[in-house]
Backbone:
């Protein structure tokens, strides 16, 4: 199954995707883009919206899991990031 996602940490809220493809995108409460539909993922407007995003924040993820109607964007793994930063800083000293 394909799932349309906006990576919130990459979205800068320019609104390009929303103005191009109102079927799939709308504003969230933080002034960023959110996905509002996971249907019709081969539409021309969606392709144009993805290509127009200046930060490549829009992706279509493939998953074997059954889509349950809840759209979530992937969150960064802060513990892994912290461990990587600590490991790299300890290597420098
Ligand atoms: S085009 Fe990209 S950066 Fe602009 S609002 Fe949409 S997802 Fe965010």
Residues:
């Amino acid at each position: 199954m394909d799932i349309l996602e906006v990576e919130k940490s990459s979205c800068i809220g320019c609104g390009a995707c929303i103005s191009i493809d109102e079927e799939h995108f709308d504003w969230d409460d933080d002034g960023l883009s959110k996905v509002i539909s996971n249907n019709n993922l081969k539409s021309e407007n969606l392709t144009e919206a993805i290509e127009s995003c200046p930060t490549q924040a829009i992706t279509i993820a493939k998953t074997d899991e059954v889509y349950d109607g809840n759209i979530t964007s992937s969150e960064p793994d802060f513990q892994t990031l912290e461990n990587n930063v600590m490991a790299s800083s300890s290597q420098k000293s």
Notes: The helical segments are 16-20, 44-52, 78-92. The CA atoms of residues 29 and 54 lie 21 Å apart.
